[in-house]
C-alpha cells in the first residue's frame, strides 16, 4: 500500500499545484474586479513571497560550507531576470487577467514552451533540423499554439453557455469578433508568456554560475518587490491604491505570496527531481480546465466557442511541442546539438507554470520510453475534461 502511494505522490503533487494556480487566477480575477490595483497586488505578492522564502533559504543554507558570490555580472543577470520574469511578467499577466478572463489567462500560459522554442531557435540556442520529425513537430505545435492564441484573442463567437439551442448561425459565427477590451487582455497575456520565455533564456547563464535555486528565488522575489514598488510609485501615485479594503483582498495577497510563490515552488521542484520536467509540464492544461469549470459555474464567466476552440488548439499544440521535446532531453543524443539547447528545453519544461521563482536546470527530462505513453494519457484526460465541461456547463449554470 505504501509503495503504491509513493508511485502516485508526484501526480498528487502536480494536481495540487495546478489547483493552487487555478484558485489564484480565479481569486485574483475577483479581487481585480472589486477594484484592487494589479500593480499594487504584484508588490504585495512579491513582498510576501520574499518574507516567506528568505528565512527558509537562510535555514536551508546555514550548514553549507560553500559560499557563493554573485559578483556584478551575476547580480546584473538576476536583476534583469527579475525585471522580465517577475515584475513586468506579473504586471502584464494580471492586467490581462483583469481585462480578459481567468480561463483565458490559464490557457495562454500553455504558449510558453512554444514561444521559448522560437526564441531559443532565433538566438542559436536551439537546433532546428527540418529533416527530423521531432523538429517538424515542434514547428507544427508552435504554429497550432499561436493559432489557438489568435483565435482566443480575435474570435469570440457565440456564447457556449446558456444557449437555448445548439444550432449556431454560421454567418454570426464567422463575423462575431472580440471586444477591444478582450483583445487587449489577450495581448497582455501573450506578452506575459513572451516575458516568461525570455526569463527562461536568461536562466541558462544564471544557473550555470549560481546553482542554489532557493536562494536565487529569494533574491528574485526581493528584487522584484523593489522594482514593482518603484514602478507603482511612478505609475500609480494615488496613495489610496495601496489600501487593502477587505479580508478578501488580504487573503488573496497572502495566498498568492505563500502558496502561489512558496508552496508550488517546492511541489514543482520535488516532482521534477523525481519524474523530470516533462512530467510536470504535462499537467499544465489541467489548470485551464479547472479555472474554466469553476469560473463558469460560480463566477458566471462567459464561455464562447472561440475561447473553447482556441484553448483546445493551444493545449493540442502544447502536447505536440512536448512530444517533439521529449527525445531531445532524453540524454546524450549526439554532438550536433548546441551546448545550451538542452538547458533551454529543460527550463521551458521545468518552469512554465511558475510565475516568480527561479530554479536550477539540473534534472533530466522524463525517460523517452515513457514520454509517449504519458503524453497520450495526459492528452486523453484533458480532452475528456473539456468534453465534460461542454456537456455539463448549462446544467451547472442553470442550478445557480
From TrEMBL:
Domain EamA, first and last residues per copy: 13-143, 184-322
Entry's Gene Ontology cellular component terms: membrane
Source organism superkingdom: Eukaryota
GO molecular function: transmembrane transporter activity
Matches recorded under Pfam families: EamA
Transmembrane segments: 12-32, 38-60, 72-92, 104-124, 136-155, 182-202, 214-235, 247-267, 279-299, 305-323, 375-393
Annotated compartments: Membrane
Keyword annotations from UniProtKB, A to Z: Membrane, Transmembrane, Transmembrane helix
Topology versus the membrane: Multi-pass membrane protein
Family named by the database record: Belongs to the drug/metabolite transporter (DMT) superfamily. Plant drug/metabolite exporter (P-DME) (TC 2.A.7.4) family.
Protein name: WAT1-related protein
Amino acid at each position: 500500500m505504501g509503495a503504491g502511494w509513493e508511485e502516485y505522490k508526484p501526480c498528487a503533487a502536480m494536481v495540487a499545484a495546478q489547483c493552487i494556480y487555478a484558485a489564484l487566477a480565479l481569486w485574483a480575477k475577483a479581487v481585480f474586479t472589486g477594484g484592487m490595483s494589479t500593480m499594487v497586488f504584484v508588490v504585495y505578492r512579491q513582498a510576501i513571497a520574499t518574507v516567506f522564502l528568505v528565512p527558509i533559504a537562510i535555514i536551508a543554507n546555514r550548514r553549507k560550507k560553500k559560499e557563493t558570490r554573485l559578483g556584478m555580472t551575476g547580480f546584473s543577470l538576476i536583476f534583469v531576470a527579475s525585471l522580465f520574469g517577475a515584475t513586468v511578467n506579473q504586471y502584464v499577466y494580471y492586467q490581462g487577467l483583469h481585462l480578459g478572463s481567468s480561463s483565458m489567462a490559464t490557457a495562454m500560459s500553455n504558449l510558453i514552451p512554444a514561444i521559448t522554442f522560437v526564441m531559443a531557435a532565433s538566438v542559436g540556442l536551439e537546433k532546428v533540423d527540418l529533416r527530423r520529425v521531432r523538429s517538424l513537430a515542434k514547428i507544427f505545435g508552435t504554429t497550432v499554439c499561436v493559432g489557438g492564441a489568435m483565435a482566443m484573442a480575435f474570435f469570440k463567437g457565440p456564447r457556449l453557455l446558456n444557449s437555448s439551442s445548439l444550432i449556431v448561425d454560421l454567418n454570426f459565427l464567422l463575423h462575431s469578433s472580440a471586444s477591444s477590451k478582450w483583445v487587449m487582455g489577450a495581448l497582455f497575456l501573450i506578452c506575459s508568456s513572451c516575458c516568461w520565455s525570455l526569463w527562461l533564456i536568461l536562466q541558462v547563464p544564471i544557473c550555470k554560475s549560481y546553482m542554489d535555486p532557493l536562494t536565487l528565488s529569494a533574491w528574485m522575489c526581493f528584487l522584484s518587490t523593489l522594482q514593482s514598488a518603484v514602478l507603482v510609485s511612478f505609475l500609480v501615485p494615488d496613495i489610496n491604491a495601496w489600501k487593502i479594503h477587505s479580508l478578501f483582498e488580504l487573503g488573496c495577497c497572502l495566498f498568492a505570496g505563500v502558496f502561489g510563490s512558496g508552496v508550488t515552488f517546492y511541489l514543482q521542484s520535488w516532482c521534477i527531481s523525481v519524474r523530470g520536467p516533462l512530467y510536470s509540464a504535462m499537467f499544465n492544461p489541467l489548470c485551464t480546465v479547472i479555472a474554466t469549470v469553476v469560473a463558469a459555474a460560480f463566477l458566471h464567466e462567459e464561455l464562447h466557442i472561440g475561447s473553447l476552440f482556441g484553448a483546445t488548439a493551444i493545449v493540442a499544440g502544447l502536447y505536440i511541442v512536448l512530444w517533439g521535446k521529449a527525445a531531445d532531453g532524453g540524454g546524450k543524443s549526439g554532438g550536433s546539438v548546441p551546448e545550451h539547447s538542452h538547458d533551454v528545453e529543460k527550463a521551458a519544461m521545468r518552469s512554465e507554470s511558475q510565475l516568480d521563482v527561479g530554479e536550477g536546470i539540473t534534472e533530466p527530462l522524463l525517460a523517452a520510453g515513457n514520454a509517449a505513453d504519458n503524453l497520450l494519457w495526459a492528452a486523453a484526460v484533458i480532452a475528456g475534461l473539456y468534453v465534460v465541461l461542454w456537456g455539463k456547463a448549462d446544467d451547472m449554470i442553470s442550478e445557480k
